[in-house]
Amino acid sequence: AKKQGGNTYQFYTSDMQADSVDQLALESSLRRALEREEFQVYYQPQVELKTGNIVGVEALIRWQHPELGLISPATFIPLAEETGLIMPIGEWVLKTACAQTKAWQTAGFSSLRVAVNLSCRQFNQANLGESIVEILNNTGLAPQFLELEITESVLTQNESAAIKTLNKLKLLGIEISIDDFGTGYSSLSYLKKFPFSTLKIDRSFIRNINTDARCKNITMAIIQMSQKLNLKVIAEGVEAAEEVFFLCQHNCDEVQGYLFCRPVPPEELEKLLWKGKRL
Ligand code: C2E
Ligand code: CA
Ligand code: CA
Ligand code: CA
């Protein structure tokens, strides 16, 4: 093994070094990004199928790196989570999204709701409730217009602590939504244990609604189950008209996806809100 190892080992070492240098560089620029105001919040509309109205928006962070350009949250959120930087970043997203939504409400879209993604560390922070109450007080947004999106994996670590946190948030009047539903574990028992208000059907099911009978049936079952449990159900990643047709037929509450709109900067979202108002 040693014999043939030489070059290969060399290769892997320099490769790994390059990787960790990248990682380090990314980490330190991530650290500075907040101060330098390189982050932005984009918004993607959530459309109510019954009325065609934009009833909510999902806040999605964007990072415009000065040299590297736009970096996807799928790349830097895990790094932020690992390093703990997600705490100040997540708080900034919450503040920004709540303030923006309050401004839209004041402009006349008085029942617009905002959904904000919460990472595992954020969900598990000791003073989550207090920190959110402070943000709501400072921005003037009423709690019923804030929805927090968490994934099932956030709940698996410490169930009883998670139930406590969720109950606390519920008492504050904040809605909890379960993101990427159907992709994690023990989804069904969780529905019984945890106080959610909304299920978001993962894009992997929606994408294959018209080509894969199992995806179609699972989607149908999730919608029916949500209705029985009095949960609001949102389909994510809707890209085709046939998908909307199917979701309408089965009384899915809301849809979100590129077919209607990609995540856009606040100015663009505001234009869409005004357009909708005239209809
Ligand atoms: P997510 O919460 O599941 O968000 C949905 C992702 O799907 C977004 O990607 C959105 O742009 C994308 N999407 C929406 N409609 C469609 C569609 O029709 N087709 C396709 N192919 N994609 C669609 P994005 O913005 O790149 O975010 C990726 C992930 O990064 C999010 O997945 C979420 O897990 C995380 N993330 C984004 N912003 C935040 C944040 O502020 N805080 C935290 N903790 N995580 C965030
Ligand atoms: Ca989400
Ligand atoms: Ca999702
Ligand atoms: Ca996801």
From TrEMBL:
Residues 23-277 form the EAL domain. This is EAL domain-containing protein.
